[in-house]
Amino acid sequence: MFTAKIREKSTRMTSQWLVLRYFLFALVALFLAAAAPESWADDDEDELTLATLKFFIEFNETDEDIGVQAVLGGEPYKKLSAFGPNGRKILNLRPRSNLKMQGLSDFFFESAEPSLDEFSMDEFLDRFPEGEYEFETITIEGMEQDGETIFTHMIPAGPVIVSPEEGEVVDLLDTVVMWEPVTQTTAFNPPQQPVTIVGYQVIVTREDPLRVFSVDVPAEATSVSVPPGFLDPGTEYELEILAVEESDNQTISLLFFETEE
Predict the structure, then answer these.
(1) pTM to 2 decimals?
(2) Which of 89, 98, 134, 196 is the most buried (most CB within 10 A)?
(3) Shortest CA distance to 158 belongs to which of 177, 191, 189, 182?
(4) 91 phi and psi angles, rounded to 5 deg
């Protein structure tokens, strides 16, 4: 009987101690959670996303040349890397010395644009497959900053320029650029498919001295008036019209015109 009572008392004390221990553990956990820095609560808050990221195709349908371009921006960074859909690194940029300490921010690059005579459309598309491309940076404070963008082969057709025509002499005070809306991909990348155009860019350039008139217009627009004060008499100008697809891919049509004396 005496032995049984001792065992019963020992078991009861052990159970009480276990309850007390669990209570203390819970109390300490609550205290640590309340006192912990916000960065402990969610490590994802330390990961930044690039504010701007575009990676796209630019095709000049008139000159038949093609390349890729990229636009990105965010917090200043000291390292930039990019990866293709297969995970292979395609870009590794590391500023040095003072530029590294200053950091990069907004950034733009474009590749070389060989003609289709040198480098076929199929070869280009094989070199840059469709899929997700990832851009990663390390900020000057050492934080990760990245972004992903979908790269497609939806290359719009070049706008058909209605006015002016190639080599036409135009009225200084009344020059209106007109084009037909783009509805399909370029015939240089068959089979043609419907596209969604999000806007057009019209650029008129005088080479010497360099003067540029550039305007972005919505997808519904099919004409732009050139400001009379921009044009000089007896001068040759280059006209470019870019059709921009929802994938950011863009295609240029161009010609040259002159102004009357």
Answers:
(1) 0.80
(2) 134
(3) 182
(4) -150, 135
Virtual CA dihedral for 163, 65, 52, 212, nearest 10 degrees? -40
Q: Determine the Cα–Cα distance for residues 215 and 66; give it in Å rounded to an integer.
A: 23
Q: Which CATH number is 183's domain given?
A: 2.60.40.10
Who's near 243: CB < 8 A, 6+ residues apart? 156, 157, 158, 159, 182, 197, 200, 250, 251, 253
Q: pLDDT per residue over 125-134, tens digit each?
A: 999 999 999 9
Domain count, the chain: 3
CA 244 vs CA 48, 60, 80, 111, 163: distances in Å: 28, 12, 26, 18, 20
Q: Among residues 54, 61, 167, which one has the least CA distance to residue 116? A: 61
Angle CA 238–153–109, to nearest 5:
55
Distances (CA, A) of 121 to 88, 101, 129, 155: 22, 41, 12, 11
- Look at the block and give the residue holding tokens 């008036």: 225
Backbone phi, psi, residue 117, to 5°: -70, -35
Instruction: Name residues of the chain where pLDDT drops below 50.
Output: 1-15, 17-20, 22-33, 35-44
Where do runs of H (alpha helix) occur along the chain? 2-35, 38-41, 97-102, 121-127
